[in-house]
Write a structure and sequence with these properties.
By secondary structure, this protein is mainly α. It folds into 2 domains: 30 residues; 47 residues, no CATH class. Helix content is 53%, strand content 0%. α1 packs antiparallel against α2. The longest helix has 21 residues. InterPro entries: NAD(P)H_nitroreductase, Nitroreductase, Nitroreductase-like. This is NAD(P)H nitroreductase. It comes from Enterobacter agglomerans.
Amino acid sequence: DRLSQLLEQAARDKQLDEKAINKASQSPFRAPMIITVVAHCEEHHKVPRWEQIASASCAVMAMQMAAVAQGYNGIWRSG
């Protein structure tokens, strides 16, 4: 329910119409499982930003491959 509320608020913040707001709030309930990943990158002289993003991306890919090995399937979405 919390993800639904966050997506609804984001749609309202973008001043979308009511149909789009409703679609956004209902979107988390379309899939049987949702994995949400957020990468918080910090400037560091030894680990550049691109490497932090690549590391997070690889972690997500590994999770997706583990899910596929267990019979699940999935897609990447961003935004």
